[in-house]
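Backbone-to-sequence.
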């Protein structure tokens, strides 16, 4: 039977995430947005709560929860601070999931376990200065040398870039085969020739850490190869399908925060002798926001459900991210409009929501890439 009800476990996770976000994240969110300081203590506590490896099996130190639980927690955390949301999302869906799915027992013991407990932090390194949307054109190279690989190149826009301990890096091992010649490797901070580059000064999600990475003859043992030689691009894409569900949930959190701020303000603020919530102009905005957010939540839950039940979720994840990120930007804009001049200043939180929302239309595949991905899946379906 189709049910829209959350289970008792889901409710418990929602309460825990909400409480943690309010008590531990909210007090420093505004200050960190200004200073750009990485929330190291908060990340450590998220690890203690089991939120850094939510879907990882308990066998490897994870919480063994489903993707719906992860989406619920991501929404609650991102509602209060989207910077913390993306740190959590990258570790959970782009690093832990990937190592659990493709790693050897040895790699899981060495890397997955500390990542899942939050003892270590992970980063996913696909984008390059010349290869963002066009991710098949990797220029970073890995050349075999006996039992090792020698890695050279530069990665860009890496979330958790300077704070991470473990990095999944994609490199070209056979250029003639193009994307079928890409291989994934697990690198550690501190390896010789691994240099952390410039930290980006961003519009939003300012207390998450984004930087470039440079590899100069970094020697990586073959035991750190993740998956088969030439399988790297498939691994990256499969991982991003799940990552996109996490970003949809992050967008959902920002949208919900925008809506709640706008609703509260509209009921408190008076103009023309009455609360502005009484005016149809405001009612239309609030009702559109609430309707769109609910639709985005259903798409995101559906993508998570597909992942949890072993169904294909490429299209569902792309749809959820495409729609939820658009709703986040639109909701933040409307929240600012409802606040009028107050929405344009830092004292009210909605200006940050807009700055934070915008990135959800860019990273883990731009909206334009999501459109292409959805169209390609639709063509496959309609070819029978
Ligand atoms: N899932 C599984 N496989 C996929 C896929 C998906 N979503 N999208 C493409 N593929 C597969 C294709 O089936 C194809 O496989 P075969 O060669 O076996 O047939 C292969 O990937 C290459 O695809 P195309 O031939 O269609 O190549 P293309 O260049 O025309 O399109 C693309 C590829 C869809 C544009 C892909 O490069 C892409 O998704 N780009 C966006 C990259 C991205 O999302 N980057 C995010 C960076 S990480 C980040 O942001 C994290 C962070 O820090 C927050």
């Amino acid at each position: 039977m189709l049910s829209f009800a959350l289970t008792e476990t889901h409710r418990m996770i929602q309460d825990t995430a909400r409480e943690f976000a309010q008590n531990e994240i909210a007090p420093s969110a505004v200050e960190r947005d200004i200073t750009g300081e990485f929330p190291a203590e908060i990340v450590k506590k998220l690890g203690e709560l089991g939120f850094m490896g939510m879907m990882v099996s308990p066998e490897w130190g994870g919480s063994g929860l489903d993707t719906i639980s992860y989406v619920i927690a991501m929404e609650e955390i991102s509602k209060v601070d989207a910077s913390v949301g993306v740190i959590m999302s990258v570790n959970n869906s782009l690093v832990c999931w990937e190592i659990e799915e493709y790693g050897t027992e040895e790699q899981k013991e060495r890397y997955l376990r500390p990542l899942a407990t939050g003892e270590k932090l992970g980063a996913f390194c696909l984008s390059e200065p010349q290869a963002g949307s066009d991710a098949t054109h990797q220029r970073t190279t890995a050349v075999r040398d006996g039992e090792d690989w020698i890695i050279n190149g530069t990665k860009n826009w890496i979330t958790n870039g300077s704070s991470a301990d473990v990095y999944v890096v994609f490199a070209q091992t056979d250029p003639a085969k193009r994307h079928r010649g890409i291989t994934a490797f697990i690198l550690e901070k501190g390896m010789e020739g691994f240099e952390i580059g410039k930290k980006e000064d961003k519009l939003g999600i300012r207390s998450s850490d984004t930087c470039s990475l440079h590899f100069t003859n970094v020697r990586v043992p073959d035991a750190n190869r993740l998956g088969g030689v030439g399988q790297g691009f498939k691994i990256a894409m499969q991982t991003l399908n799940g990552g996109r569900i996490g970003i949809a949930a992050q967008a959902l959190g920002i949208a919900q925060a925008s809506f709640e701020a706008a609703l509260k303000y509209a009921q408190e603020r008076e103009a023309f002798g009455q609360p502005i919530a009484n005016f149809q102009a405001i009612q239309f905005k609030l009702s559109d926001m609430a309707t769109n957010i609910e639709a985005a939540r259903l798409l995101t839950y559906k993508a998570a459900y597909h992942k949890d039940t072993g169904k294909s979720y490429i299209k569902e994840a792309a749809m959820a991210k495409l729609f939820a990120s658009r709703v986040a930007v639109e909701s933040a804009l409307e929240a600012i409009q409802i606040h009028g001049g107050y929405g344009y200043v830092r004292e009210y939180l909605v200006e940050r929501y807009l700055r934070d929302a915008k990135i959800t239309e860019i990273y883990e595949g731009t909206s334009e890439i999501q459109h292409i991905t959805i169209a390609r899946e639709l063509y496959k379906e309609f070819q029978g």
